Amino acid sequence: MLGLVQELEDNLTWATGQGQGKYQKQHLGRGMLLARDRIAMILDEGSPFLEICALAGFGWGDSTPSGVMTLISANIATLDGGSSNEATVLKGERLGQIGLECRLPSIVLVQSAGANLPQQFRVFHRGGASFRDMAIKSQARIPTCAVVFGSSTAGGAYTPGMSDCVIMVKHKSSWADRPWSKWHEILSVAMADVRQPWDIRELIARLVDGSRFVEFKPLYGPGLIVGWAYIHGFPVGIIANNAVLFPPEANKATQFIRLCNTRDTPIVFLQNITGFMVGKRYEEAGIIKAGSLFINAVSNSTVPHLTIMCGSSFGAGNYAMSGRAYKPRFLFSWPNSKCSVMGTEQLAGVMDEVARDGARRSGKTINEAVHGGRIDALKASVDETATVWYTSSRMLDDGNCYLGPAD
Question: What is the pTM assigned to this prediction?
Answer without folding.
Answer: 0.66
